[in-house]
Amino acid sequence: MKLPSLNIANFAASFPLIQGGMSIRVSTSALAAPVASNGGIGVIGGSGLPPEELHNDILKAKKSSEGVIAVNIMYAMKDFHQLVMASIDAGIDMIITGAGFSRDIFKIGKKHNTPIVMIVSSPALARLAEKLGAAAVIVEAKEAGGHLGTDKPLRELFPPIRDVIKKIPLIAAGGITTGYEMAEMMDKYGADGVQIASRFVLSKECDIADSFKQTYLDAKKEDIVLTSSPVGMPGRAINNAFVKAMNSGEDVSTKRCAYVCIKKCSHLYCINERLNLARKGDTEKGLFFSGENSYKMKNILSVAEIFKQFRQQAESVYKEDKGFLPAT
Ligand SMILES: Cc1cc2nc3c(=O)[nH]c(=O)nc-3n(C[C@H](O)[C@H](O)[C@H](O)COP(=O)(O)O)c2cc1C
Q1: Do residue 260 and residue 218 come from a single domain?
Q2: pLDDT tens digits, 191-206
Q3: Which atom of ligand 1 is the closest one to the Cα of 21?
Q4: How far apart are CA 141 and CA 179, in angstroms?
């Protein structure tokens, strides 16, 4: 059965899939625009970019696609407010935020008529986000890549949040690699859509070094591990030489902070520098954020092929055509 569209505020994605934001130039307009053109919500990772670069990349994405384009900005960033305003100035369709909780963002969203989508990992924060005016909530579980707000798996974390969120769309994120799992989350767990990131790292359009993608393709289950981040949250990444050194207590810090990018940086290492090294393909020194299940994916596909595969798989098993219907 055909999957319903994902309706967030006045925006409708014809296929209920959000491509997860991946910062430090992993998800740029090069990826977000084709995702949006294929009917999903394309997300530019905004954290750690100079506001002007983010502004220009949003303009580029909006020019290349008529679909829905969002930006993901972590509240932990020092220039959170500047990045939000640069995105609004560029005409972003919606702002997705997490890694901390901003109450002010809802006032800004309201003032500029920009929907705010909150990433949460608990029923309490989900309820608060809805109360403050979130247009949708994303439930991100421990299987996700990047920073983690919980150690609970998706199928355990999602139901109690589904129980408290009734008026706005609720989206499931973390470890989804096939359309079958997408349909399961929507059909059995009542999600209004899914957010997926690691699958899109392994897309032709993702504008990163080939060796980044090869690191994913080579990874086995046991190579995807938990590690620490100077943001003060655990993170999930591939266990390369850098992560092994850090996890064994070696000093991996940078002596001079070149970015001054995080509100409360622990200076354990420079995350901006390490993520940039990964994007450029330094397999030894870079930090390769990855979802727990990326080892299951063994091919690089175009964005159109990923959508085709997800649609075929999901619609072959999806039964309930409930979806989220905005209150009238
Ligand atoms: C390389 C990479 C970078 C990420 N960067 C961010 C980020 O900047 N902000 C954020 O909220 N989530 C980030 N995430 C999390 C994703 O947006 C997404 O919610 C999560 O990875 C979903 O799980 P999956 O990768 O198993 O599909 C990142 C994930 C990956 C794999």
Answers
A1: yes
A2: 999 999 999 999 999 9
A3: 17
A4: 18
